[in-house]
Amino acid sequence: MDKKIQINHKRFLSDISSFGQIGALSGGGVARLALTDSDRLGRDELVSRMKALGLRVSIDNIGNIFGTRAGRLSSTVMTGSHIDTVLTGGLYDGTYGVLAGLEVIAALNDACIETEHSITVASFTNEEGARFQPDMLGSLVFAGGMSVETARATADKSGITLGDELDRTGYAGAGHGPDHIISYYELHIEQGPVLENENTDIGVVTGVQGISWSRLTFRGRSSHAGTTPMHSRADSGLAAMSLITRLHTALKDIPEQLITCGSFQVLPDLINVVPHITTLTIDLRNPDEQALKTAEKILTELISDTEKAFNISVKKETLARFDPVSFNGKLISQIEKIAHNNGFTARRLCSGAGHDAQMIARIAPAAMIFVPSVNGLSHNIAELTYPDDLCRGTQVLAEAILSDAL
Ligand code: HGY
Ligand code: MN
Ligand code: MN
Ligand code: MN
């Protein structure tokens, strides 16, 4: 690659902090749940920044936003991520990768560099899966892994569908993303402790671990807390707590197995009523598909044990199930080479978090670049990545994109 591209650090860092004002929380951090008004404001701001850079903006039928800088050919090098966040979100999860893509475009414009292939910056709908499940929904639909009808019909806890929200916010588009993608690079914060602990600048991401999300609904019988003998209760809350405790014990010896019960609700949620219905979510992850399957089997067995032991019924719904994904070897080596050419330290690692890149990997060569997270924290308003790390990651992204697009 004979043309050097230089990121404008000052411009880029100010772009990130100004974007972070959208959906800003009073105590710091950001909340832009998918297709809420704050997400819509973020989308509007992103579209206007894309237009200001001279990009052709296209919005598809699931609300994915694509900004394209034309090359001599329509074949495209794509980058991107997401701007929706969890409720305790930070400035960087997802947004960093989208804005870094725009900074690469701005740097190309500054240098008046024309490219052979087009370059697209994408922002995918509902990556977090916090409001609507599954996560990575927009990129999954774009990659052909879910129909737009099924995606539109998914509902949040209050029964509002994703389709209703797309229509309400005006982001059900008639456009489409690039149809010939030669490579996809996603820049993202690591969201874990590895790079910081090893004092390493760049994470060269080899793939994403397997993800299994389910929702369990325990149905018992409400009764009086003061008059119902313990042996004759159908206590859905106690059953749920017992299952979660037993599941943690049963899975603790499976290597690299992760289990999270992030949402837990009892009804009627009153101090003197034995809980009638208890709903909880279970997030299982493992880089090894067989191990993940074993964990899921143990969960199923524990559910039927619990039904008998507590005289209740349990309904299990699968909310997301993605096998482990490996990224493209050529792109991985490319990222590694660019990091070293810039004098950055780098190491390979598998991603603990799910990412849009794992969906794009279904239809094009894809890879990811990580930068360190302070204290390994994310999905927490204290999420932080230092400015030098933000700029190093963006420099590597820029050179990776340019090496394919020229
Ligand atoms: O859950 C995840 O890994 C991603 O943040 N959606
Ligand atoms: Mn993310
Ligand atoms: Mn996230
Ligand atoms: Mn992601």
From TrEMBL:
SUPFAM superfamilies from the UniProt entry: Bacterial exopeptidase dimerisation domain, Zn-dependent exopeptidases
Alphabetical list of Pfam families matching this protein: M20_dimer (PF07687), Peptidase_M20 (PF01546)
Domain Peptidase M20 dimerisation, chain residue ranges per copy: 207-307
Domain of life: Bacteria
Keywords, ordered alphabetically: Hydrolase
Entries under InterPro entries matching the protein: Amidase_Cbmase, Bact_exopeptidase_dim_dom, Peptidase_M20, Peptidase_M20_dimer
Gene Ontology terms, MF aspect: hydrolase activity
Keyword Hydrolase appears in the UniProt entry: yes
Family: Belongs to the peptidase M20 family.
Name the record gives this protein: Zn-dependent hydrolase
